[in-house]
User: Fold this.
Amino acid sequence: QVHLVESGGGLVQPGGSLRLSCAASGMPVNINSMAWFRQAPGKERDVVASISANGRTRYTESVKGRFTISRDNAENTVNLQMNSLKSEDTAVYYCNRIVYDLNYPLEPWGQGTQVTVSS
Assistant:
């Protein structure tokens, strides 16, 4: 059974940085397409960044140039480096295994990690 645990969130001022980590058990992240999603209050859960099994990456337009998704195969984690954070990045962030071209999540959701960008 796949189990996903997100961490690294917190309160940060606008312009600051955070690094999120998703620890996956029950599957190897290096041969799977993975993604980070986020859900703000009152909004749907949307994909933020994805990485395919062969390393291709995609980002939603609003985070391009600011966020970077990566994998740590030794730790079996998927990470999201977030720079130049804005108030609109405030949300609960989740990771999941996906069907890459569809961004369709395949595993049970973890608890997520809260990111709050505020002065």
Q: What stands out?
A: The chain has a mean pLDDT of 96. The CA atoms of residues 15 and 84 lie 4 Å apart. The longest strand covers residues 91-99. The radius of gyration is 13 Å.
